[in-house]
Amino acid sequence: MNMFSLSVPASSANIGPGFDSVGMALNRYLTLQVTRQEKWEFAQHSHLLPSFTDYEDHFIYQIAKQTANWHQKSLPACKVSIDSEIPLARGLGSSASAVIAGIELANQLCTLSLSSLDKLQLATEIEGHPDNVAASLVGGLVISVETDNVIDYCQVPDLDIDIVVYIPAVELKTEKSRKALPAYFSRKDATIASGISNLMIASLLKGDYELAGKMMEHDLFHEPYRADLIPHYHDLKQEAKQFGAYGTVISGAGPTMISFVPKGKGGTISKQMKTFLPHYQIEPLDIDHNGLRVEQEII
Ligand code: HSE
Predict the structure, then answer these.
(1) What is the pTM of this model?
(2) Digit-coded pLDDT (tens) for 5-27
(3) CATH, domain range 161-285
(4) Disulfide engineering: 73 pairs with which of 69, 110, 215, 277, CB 3.0-4.6 Å?
């Protein structure tokens, strides 16, 4: 019997001014164990996963089927056991990780031999923007953009920082959070906003995390319009700064927020922030550098 497993990391998109193009993979995972069998079966082992009634309604099955159809193949039946550490609708890329899992499920079951770029192209078509899916697929901090229907991406070398995430108990749907954004920017505003984004990336590459943190907090593309939707948006940033964070931003479309903090300080700052936000799940996370992983087992 053939069996394989997939793991896909969570992700944090935007990192302030990198709206829809910067994503960072984080060490919380969606995992699938797949065994060939006569009939389709999905089994879920985490309360963080959305409920479903029939395998055909399962989001991951639908993505796998869509991927197989695009390549004129049909999926062979399997048992898919799913576990997840990624909370839903919190800005940690749960849907992007499910999209990557669905594409890879079809890739493995139908032997499609898709390249990373093929997968990224498909995933972006489904998600609408490449930031979360690129990070979940290839790992690390990734900058990606779609121009003329082609995606290009670049992974930033390892960052010498710790990450702290602040996950509130409430959900915020990406659709609602995107509706808060303006349809247009003036040339002046777009020029300044992209300058801020450019400077953030340049300073991250240089290792000037103070400057990167300053630029993270000066986003003009989305944070000013979403601030009212995010619990404790202003005071959380201020408090984290007082405890030594370089910069604190909305993770993806929110409502989770995320700080870049000095290396070695993630644990302490998490504890300090917990006294300020006792109802939040606050934890230091690591950047995942692997992205999607597939392990084959013959049993
Ligand atoms: N870049 C996206 C946004 C991430 O901020 O809306 C969430 O899907």
Answers:
(1) 0.95
(2) 999 999 999 999 999 999 999 99
(3) 3.30.70.890
(4) 110
